[in-house]
Amino acid sequence: MVSILLPLTALNLSAFVIFALSSFSTYRELLGRAPTENTGKLLKIAAALLLTASLWLCVASKSWGLGLLLWFGNMTMTALLVALLLTLRDELKRKKPKRR
Predict the structure, then answer these.
(1) Are 74 and 5 in contact (CB under 8 A)?
(2) Which letter, b or e, does each residue of 71-84 get, where b requires 16 or more Cβ atoms within 10 Å of its Cβ?
(3) Fewer beta carbons under 10 A from the terminal one: N or C of the chain?
(4) The pTM is what?
């Protein structure tokens, strides 16, 4: 089971990042320009495909019962990781040393 946790977490984290980039404000903040409508749709489709791939990885390795449990559990832990990283990012922005 440990052997699929790292690729599973990587797939889910990638999907969450791509879902965030499909948002207009996040895309503009990170890349400095507004996304086109097609770009937003393509990013959402790519993120959904990554989540589907991570679900397939779980089900293929552990059957439907344990695979779904593993998938939902890993998605929960990945969402917690994203929330903690966003909080840390905001804290680091606030504690940025002032230049003299």
Answers:
(1) yes
(2) beebbeebeeebee
(3) C
(4) 0.82
